[in-house]
Specification:
The structure is a single chain. The longest helix is centred in the last third of the chain and has 20 residues. The strands form two sheets. An eight-stranded parallel β-barrel has the order 3-4-5-6-7-8-9-10, surrounded by five helices. It has 17 helices and ten strands. Strand 7, helix 10 and strand 8 form a beta-alpha-beta unit.
Length: 426
């Protein structure tokens, strides 16, 4: 057909001709995605690679809805979650993880730099590195980087080098023992398309929502805004994505079938600075679990938890409180600044009253620091509506103290009790 002929035809006939030669594809039916057939080969986005899980645990995550899986995770409160070390500290917390006392592991999503000075140094390669080292996968197909089995294997929780076969497990036992893999998704300076691709990759599906093979998917995505220095610029909120945007996007993608129904959506709140109404907004955006900053400004955090309980928000979502495992006055100062409360008068008093080794002997100092952390843990456990503890031991001393608390029961763990009972029966 000539162009001159097309020019003489009315528009309605042109539309019909175009439809005849270029028919629209048939709508693709959306079937539920089973998390047990998904993978997590993460895409490198925004300068940081997220972790991948082992192929050996491809069928580890059951295809239940997220709400049912959460009921199982928090069946015995408090659930214990461990903040995992990455980059240069990768593997430093392997001994803690392999105690089997933690029901889940949380992997952070760090920016290339958290301050302008650090960003400039990295961009100009003044420290010999152009960007933050990429974190290797937390667990590999055959073994983790610390020489032991990864978290995807049931036997890694017992410290054994021989995997438990399906024939050796009772029906449903693997799902009950499988620890949760929580992947943090930080908005940082990523575009909406980059963040969407990140979520799909974390869930082990492609851009169509179809499963990809290769490893275990994340059980939950933890959405945060991030600490990239560009987020502190004036009016940055107008052009950068926020944690609310990520929650709403993920909830929509899961509802439409692009994310598996078993994938849980988590958020973060600061009970020392944010009002309880912001927690309600996070829940309305789709958050099913909330991880809080450590309650170092205790009076503020206590009132926040009490109000959340009175408003029945603790019935709508699980609240997991951060436990920092403070190892020194300098470490406490770091945590106060990280939480944005260093300027508060009560936090200045808290820092001034923290034990110092110069005032005590080494043994007395260690005992005083340990008691300070034990008191904080007990006060958190006494708060209403606490469903779990997010343990964050960043230093060597903090990791040693955590191991002692697990052994002594200061950090109560139903998983530890189950592991000990299994050892006695064996």
């Amino acid at each position: 057909m000539k162009v001159s002929d097309l020019a003489s035809r009315p528009p309605s006939q042109l539309v019909s001709l175009r439809a005849a030669h270029h028919p629209s594809p048939a709508p693709r039916s959306r079937r539920p995605r089973t998390a047990g057939h998904l993978s997590t080969n993460f895409t490198l986005l925004g300068g940081v690679a997220a972790p991948a899980a082992p192929a050996a645990s491809l069928d580890a995550s059951p295809a239940w809805p997220a709400s049912e899986r959460l009921d199982q995770l928090f069946q015995r409160s408090p659930a214990l979650l461990l903040e995992r070390s990455i980059s240069e500290r990768l593997g430093a917390d392997a001994d803690l993880w392999h105690t089997g006392c933690f029901q889940g592991e949380v992997y952070p999503d760090l920016p290339i730099a958290s301050t302008w000075r650090d960003l400039v140094q990295r961009l100009f390669n003044l420290q010999g590195v152009s960007q933050r080292p990429q974190p290797p996968p937390p667990v590999l197909a055959q073994g983790s980087s610390d020489g032991s089995l990864g978290s995807g294997s049931s036997s890694s929780r017992q410290g054994s080098s021989i995997p438990v076969t399906e024939e050796q497990q009772q029906p449903g036992q693997q799902q009950q023992q499988q620890p949760w893999f929580v992947c943090t998704v930080a908005a940082q300076c990523r575009s909406r398309d980059q963040l969407r691709a990140f979520m799909l990759s974390a869930a082990g599906v492609d851009f169509r929502g179809e499963p990809k093979g290769g490893g275990r998917p994340a059980d939950a995505l933890l959405f945060v805004s991030g600490s990239h220095p560009a987020r502190s610029l004036p009016a940055a909120g107008r052009w950068l994505q926020t944690s609310f945007d990520l929650l709403q996007l993920a909830a929509t993608m899961r509802e439409q079938g692009y994310l598996p129904p078993s994938l849980s959506l988590w958020g973060v709140e600061n009970p020392m600075l944010a009002p309880v109404g912001r927690l309600q907004q996070k829940l309305d955006a789709g958050a099913e679990v909330i991880l809080t900053q450590p309650p170092l400004a205790w009076g503020r955090a206590e009132r926040w938890m009490q109000e959340a309980d009175v408003r029945r928000l603790t019935d709508q979502a699980r609240i997991v409180v951060g436990i920092p495992m403070v190892s020194s006055a300098g470490n406490l100062d770091f945590w106060l600044r990280l939480c944005g409360v260093r300027h508060l008068p009560e936090c200045s008093d808290l820092l001034a009253g923290f034990p110092r080794q110069g005032d005590l002997g080494k043994e007395a100092f260690n005992a005083a620091v340990k008691q300070w952390n034990a008191d904080l843990i007990q006060r958190v456990l006494d708060l209403p509506g606490v469903a779990g503890l997010h343990v964050m031991p960043l230093t060597k001393v903090a990791r040693q103290m955590t191991a002692e608390f697990l052994k002594e029961g200061t950090l109560p763990s139903s998983a530890c009790l189950a592991t000990a009972k299994a050892g006695q029966n064996a």
